[in-house]
């Protein structure tokens, strides 16, 4: 009887270790998915350009030039801010 109890205890320990290992694997897998998703969204974000004006490193394009008044309108190609 004592021998059986010890076996059951050992089995429980083994099952616990397996469950912890599976838990770690799942967490690691979720984390890698999350990182991949983050990297992808950051890549998309950098390609499309930042829509948040205060964080935008503006790249102005000349939108129109008014030769009468000597005015040039500049528009940021990333966020659409005009200058
Ligand atoms: Zn901008």
Descriptive overview:
There is one protein chain. By secondary structure, the protein is α+β, with helices and mostly antiparallel strands. It has one helix at 2-48, and strands at 60-66, 71-76. The protein has a two-stranded antiparallel sheet. The structure holds zinc ion. Zinc ion (ZN) binds next to loops.
Q: Mind telling me the C-alpha Rg?
A: 30 Å
Strand content: 15-25%
Sheet of most strands: 2 strands, antiparallel
What is the number of E strands?
Answer: 2
Total number of helical segments? 1
Q: Tell the overall outline.
A: rod-shaped
Mean pLDDT: 84
Main β-sheet, spatial strand arrangement: 1-2
State the gist of this model.
This protein has 83 residues and is α+β, with helices and mostly antiparallel strands.
Task: Name some characteristics of this structure.
binds zinc ion; two-stranded antiparallel sheet; 83 residues; 2 strands; alpha+beta; 1 helix; single chain
Annotate the secondary structure layout.
Blueprint (H helix, E strand, L loop, with lengths): L1 H47 L11 E7 L4 E6 L7
Antiparallel strand pairs: 1-2
The protein binds zinc ion.
């Amino acid at each position: 009887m004592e021998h059986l109890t010890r076996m059951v205890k050992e089995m429980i320990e083994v099952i616990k270790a397996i469950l912890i290992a599976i838990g770690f694997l799942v967490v690691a897998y979720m984390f890698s998915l999350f990182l991949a998703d983050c990297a992808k969204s950051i890549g998309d974000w950098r390609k499309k350009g930042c829509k948040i004006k205060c964080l935008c490193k503006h790249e102005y394009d000349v939108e129109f030039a008014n030769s009468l008044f000597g005015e040039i309108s500049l528009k940021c190609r990333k966020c659409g801010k005009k200058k």
